[in-house]
């Protein structure tokens, strides 16, 4: 979470997106990310926080789409008899 806050405050957008995607594997919630970005707004200013929020929304939307596509592909395999147990 510290890394996310620092990357957002420093404007390292590509690294921020990478670390936001990685939060899905750490147990950090979207609410945790919101809290960190709120602190970025308070201590680093609104412009870096606003940019980071846009990046977070985009990163999480991409992850959600990938997960939905994976679920949909898994459903198709189970129906056609090529997957599942």
Summed up, what is this model?
The chain is mainly α. 81% of the residues lie in helices and 0% in strands. It has four helices and no strands.
Termini separation: 38 Å
The geometry reads as: elongated
Rg from C-alpha positions?
16 Å
DSSP helical segment count = 4
Mean pLDDT: 90
Largest sheet: none
What low-confidence regions span 5 or more consecutive residues with pLDDT below 50? Answer: none
Q: Into which percentage range does the β-strand content fall?
A: under 5%
Helix content: over 70%
Oligomer: single chain
Structural class, by secondary structure, is mainly alpha
Can you write the helix and strand succession as a string? Answer: HHHH
Number of strands: 0
Care to describe what's here?
With 85 residues, the protein is mainly α. The chain has helices at 2-10, 13-22, 30-44, 46-80. The protein starts with a helix and ends in a 5-residue tail after the last helix.
Which short descriptors sum up this protein?
0% strand
Write the layout of secondary structure elements.
Blueprint: H1 2-10, H2 13-22, H3 30-44, H4 46-80
């Amino acid at each position: 979470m510290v890394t996310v806050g620092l990357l957002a405050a420093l404007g390292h957008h590509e690294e921020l997106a990478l670390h936001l995607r990685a939060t899905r594997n750490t147990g950090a919630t979207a609410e945790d990310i919101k809290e960190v970005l709120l602190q970025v707004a308070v201590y680093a200013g609104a412009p870096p926080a606003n940019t980071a929020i846009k990046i977070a929304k985009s990163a999480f939307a991409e992850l959600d789409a990938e997960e939905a596509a994976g679920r949909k592909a898994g459903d198709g395999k189970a129906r056609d008899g090529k997957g599942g147990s």
